[in-house]
Amino acid sequence: MKSYHQYCSVARALDxxxxxxxxxxxxxxxxxxxxxxxxxxGGLPGIATNLLADRLRSMEASGLVERYEAPPPVGTxxxxxxxxxxxxxxxxxxxxxxxxxxxxxxxxxxxxxQPHWTALAGALLLPGRLGPGAxxxxxIESEDxxxxxxxxxxxxxxxxxxxxxxxxxxxxxxxxVGAVLSGLLTPQEAVGRGLRVDDPRxxxxxxxxxxxxTTA
Length: 216
Fold this sequence. Notes:
The protein is an alpha+beta fold and 216 residues long. The protein has helices at residues 9-17, 22-32, 37-42, 49-61, 83-86, 89-98, 100-103, 115-125, 174-182, 187-192, 204-214; strands at 65-69, 77-81, 136-142, 145-152, 155-160, 168-171, 196-198. The longest helix has 13 residues, at 49-61.
């Protein structure tokens, strides 16, 4: 691990998380929780296998991630964030907000776009405007992948598969889903571009309106 050799909390933090791919590995584990090595590799297009292994070893040594053996029927090694690693959620959220303006032009032709990235961005960017004890479940059907995110005041969870009773379901490309959840497009604009919205309780305008307010 390289060091800046500066007695400064910013520099010391960057000694741990400043290497390329580290914060994106944190992103992956925030998005979908405990993950297999192959899950992480699939969510990080462009990373070499040996580099991912090296980064995971460094992150374990720094106390950011830990590996454990999942019991049957999974029966494989999984990686998860430690409590210390999960403290980086606010850092990832700040980067997501700061980077929104850079998303406005749309993806470059070579850019990968994955549905769970858009789900995490939405979960991080949607502010805590839910009342005490409230809960909203957002289903996402995109790029042959089905996800759901559960939003509560100050907290979220993202899972694979369909939610049994989603309050609102978004069906379309990951780019359109992400644009709506982040407030870059209104639901009406996204529908005009091909997004399908199933929102019987009219929950979405409140959620994404709040997201737009935080990025104004």
